[in-house]
Design goal:
Elements: E1 11-16, E2 19-24, E3 28-30, E4 33-36, E5 42-44, E6 49-55, H1 57-78, H2 84-96, E7 105-112, E8 118-123
Antiparallel strand pairs: 1-2, 3-4, 5-6, 6-7, 7-8
Length: 130
């Protein structure tokens, strides 16, 4: 069994004309045992930016907190919102710096850009973009 299957989850995103949808289950389990049915997997980073995290629950929560912190830090320094490609690069850098002891989670990024053009990106635990 893979460690990514320990808590079990699924996150998907799809793109339409000037829109996107991101969906996930809300079950938190330990293998076949259900612990909770209200676990947050999709999180809002910004008004137009959402991230879906699946995998080991403590790593999901830790990675989310780091991403929110780094995004707010960018907004304070630059005094503007982060572009979708920049956020994907930030996430990639955070994941890659932990490549020898990675966060055991996989993610989906979905965002509407300045011109309402949707952007989606997914990565594995060591920052390989798909």
């Amino acid at each position: 069994m893979s460690i990514f299957e320990y808590n079990g989850s699924a996150v998907v995103a799809m793109v339409g004309k000037n829109c996107f949808a991101i969906a996930s289950d809300r079950r938190l389990g330990v293998q076949l045992q259900t612990i909770a049915t209200d676990f947050q997997r999709i999180s809002k980073i910004d008004d137009h930016l959402f991230i879906g995290l699946s995998g080991l629950a403590p790593d999901v929560q830790t990675l989310y907190q780091r991403l929110v912190f780094r995004h707010k830090l960018y907004q304070l320094r630059e005094e503007r919102d982060m572009k979708p490609e920049s956020f994907a690069s930030l996430v990639s850098a955070i994941l890659y710096e932990k490549r020898f002891g990675p966060y055991l989670c996989q993610l989906v990024i979905a965002e509407l850009g300045d011109d309402n053009k949707p952007f989606t990106c997914t990565m594995d635990s060591i920052a390989a973009k798909f």
